[in-house]
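Hi everyone, sorry if this is the wrong subforum. Our group has a chain we'd like a structural model of before ordering constructs, and none of us has done structure prediction before. Sequence below.
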Amino acid sequence: MQTHTQNNVVENTISISVNKRLILVISLLVIASTYLTGCSTSRYQHAQDFVPNPILDPSVLVDAQVKPEPLSAMGNPKRYTVWGKEYRVQNRAVGSVQEGLASWYGMKFHGHATSNGEIYDVYQMTAAHKSLPLPSYVKVTRKDNNESVIVRVNDRGPFHQGRIIDLSYAAAVKLGIHKMGTAEVLMEVLSTPHTGPEKWLQVSALSNADSANALKSKLQQLQSWPVNIVHDSLKKLYRVRIGPVPDGFETEKVNQILAEQQLPAPLILAEHQL
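Answer:
Right subforum, don't worry. Here is the predicted structure as C-alpha cells:
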C-alpha cells in the first residue's frame, strides 16, 4: 500500500514537471509569434530602404509647379515630438533660406501615406521637411555645382543630425545626388499654404469682353493666383479680379507685380464686397 502511494506521488511530480515545461514552451511560442506578427504588421512592408527602378532619362524630369494651396488638414500640428525631440511647425516662411544636407528616401516609403495624408510616390517632385507648413514649395540648390530643383513639401523629416530636407528619388536624380546619397544644399522657401483672411484685387472694370480676356491672360502669366472675370450685366462691365489671395504678404507681392508692369493700382475687396 505504501509503495503504491509513493508511485502515485512520483507520477504526480513528473506530471507537474512536464506540464510546467509544456506551459513554458507554449508561452515562448506565443511571445515569438506575437513579436513576428508585430513586425509583419508594421506600417512599412520593408525593414530597410532601397533604390527604386532607375530613371533612364533624367532630362524628362521637371520641377514641381508652384501654385497657391490651402493648409493641409493633416500634418500641421503646432508642435510634435520625434525621438524625444520637439519640433514646431512654422506659420510663415516664404523667402527664408536654410543651409545643410539634403538626402533622399525611396521604396521603403513608396505607396505609404505622407504626413499630410497624400501617398508618397518616389517618381514625383516632393520632399519632407521638419517644420515647414504642409504643403510648401522650396527650391533646393547644390552648393558645389549650383544645380537646383523645385519640390513640393508634403511630408515630415529627415530626423538625422545635419539634414534639412529629404527629397523624393525623382528629385534626387534631377539634383544628381541619388548615387552619393547626400549633398550640401541651400534651400529657399518659395511658397507656403495660405490661411486666414483673403482678399480679391480688382485690376480693372472694362466694357469690352475681348479686352477683359486679354487682361486676364496677361495677369495669369504675371502671377500664380487665380484670375476671374465677373460680368456685371446691369452696368455692362467686365470686372477682372485676382483672387482669392491671402491678406498681407501675398497681397502686397501681387500689388508690387502690378506696379512693376505699370498697371493701375487694384481695388482691394473683401469677400462681402464681391
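For your construct planning: Confidence is low (pLDDT under 50) at residues 1-10, 22-41. The first helix runs from residue 2 to 40.
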